[in-house]
Amino acid sequence: MKLTKAIFPVAGLGTRFLPATKANPKEMMPIVDKPLIQYAVEEAIAAGIRELIFVTSSSKRAIEDHFDSNFELEASLIERGKKDLLEIVRGILPEGVSCAYVRQKSPQGLGHAVLCAKQLIMNEPFAVLLADDLIDGGQQSCLQQMVSVFEKTQSSVIAVQKIPPAETKKYGVVDVANAEEKIATLRGIIEKPDPEKAPSNLGVVGRYILTPHIFSLLEQTSQGSGGEIQLTDAIASLLKYETVSALQFSGKRYDCGSKLGYLEATIAYALKHPELAEEFKRSLQDFVV
Ligand code: G1P
Q1: Residue 275 is part of a domain; what is its CATH number?
Q2: What is the pLDDT of residue 223?
């Protein structure tokens, strides 16, 4: 099985960033000069994905426009001889990569969003990337590390990381035989448990590689945590039929669904930005007390 398709669930309302997200999708918020969704798309493409499937809602048109060509802008950049900018704009979606959009009519949870893409995935394995989770994998992106595991196991892989025990209510939490192993086999998984009910301190971050068997299980999944159809619950059912691996990936994850994580990511990426790094480092010193 070869992995060529990825789902980007982008239908969420982004209420944690209101009023910024009233008319603009949260996935279009920039980290320095690129929107969050573009980082996730670049990660997917670098890992071999060629078909991008966005699960959107009515207020997310800007995402479609971002990955489409903009004739007026390109014509103006050509006229003004702005070759570098033209390259940046044209390079957003490389040759051979296609986009498809499917609407999630009402916000019924991550599991429901993934199920909305069933017809486009057909009977193939696929990745799911949540743009809120920005991951700097260093040498190898998080999804690339997961693809290496998938190529060996040919079964589902989810990305996990150690989380503070008090924060289990923010994550899917996995039960594995040996939490110290980089690649562990899942025994169970629970969505947003209370700390005393959490099976480990390993929380799921927004990267999944799943086999298509998940769709029939999602169809049978009833409302779970928060009254939503949870992907986590369908993965728990998948364990009865298939092996699922949990990968403790190498790299740093920024929770850009929270204001603090978003600000940390902005600082970290600005400090790595070729045009800004030096000057920004100097100006940051003015803010350190
Ligand atoms: C979703 C998943 C959760 C996972 C998290 C990672 O939750 O349901 O299992 O740990 O993403 O970011 P959300 O943050 O959308 O509530």
Answers
A1: 3.90.550.10
A2: 93
